[in-house]
Amino acid sequence: LAMSRSVAQIALVVRDYDEAISFYVEKLGFVLVEDTRLSDTKRWVVIAASKENGGAKLLLAKAASDQQLSRVGNQTGGRVFLFMHTNDLRQEHQRFLEKGVIVVREPQVQPYGTVLVIEDLYGNLWDVIEPASQV
């Protein structure tokens, strides 16, 4: 019997739960999957790119120390950190412009698809990709 495995969640260190939820849900169109209070200072906050896709979810983890706070927006030393696939990059691009999301690099055709680079509210870089199989 083969083991079934997948990456379920990725922790994204944030400065504040509510500002992060607001950005990802209102500006990027993500879905709030769970927001459970664990203590006076800690919550279990999970978001997903969409309701219908089974891809990995993001766990918004509030920085709890100066060291963690120093990593907010720079978990990968300035490299692109997260990758989101879409079946309509043109529509995503338009949404980002309308919502005031910072577009770092306009759409470019690459061998693997068309890619747009955006910056989240903390400065993390995202590749938003319409895979070549869908272009």
Summarize the helices and strands and which ones pair or pack.
Elements lengths: L8 E6 L2 H11 L3 E7 L5 E6 L8 E6 L3 H4 L10 E6 L3 H11 L2 E9 L2 E7 L5 E7 L4
The number of strands is: 8
Order of helices and strands: EHEEEHEHEEE
Distance from first to last alpha carbon: 37 Å
What about the largest sheet? Answer: 4 strands, mixed
Average pLDDT taken over every residue: 94
Describe the structure in your own words.
- The chain is of the alpha/beta class.
- 19% of the residues lie in helices and 40% in strands.
- It has three helices and eight strands; from the N terminus they run E-H-E-E-E-H-E-H-E-E-E.
- The protein has helices at residues 17-27, 66-69, 89-99, and strands spanning 9-14, 31-37, 43-48, 57-62, 80-85, 102-110, 113-119, 125-131.
- It has a four-stranded mixed sheet, with helices on one face. A four-stranded mixed sheet has the order 5-8-7-6, covered by helices on one side.
- Strand 3 and strand 4 form a beta hairpin.
- The chain is globular and about 45 Å long.
- The protein starts with 8 loop residues before the first strand and ends with a strand.
- The mean pLDDT is 94.
Name a few traits of the molecule:
four-stranded mixed beta sheet; alpha/beta; 135 residues; globular; 3 helices
In summary, what is this structure?
The chain has 135 residues and is an alpha/beta fold. Helices cover 19% and strands 40% of the residues.
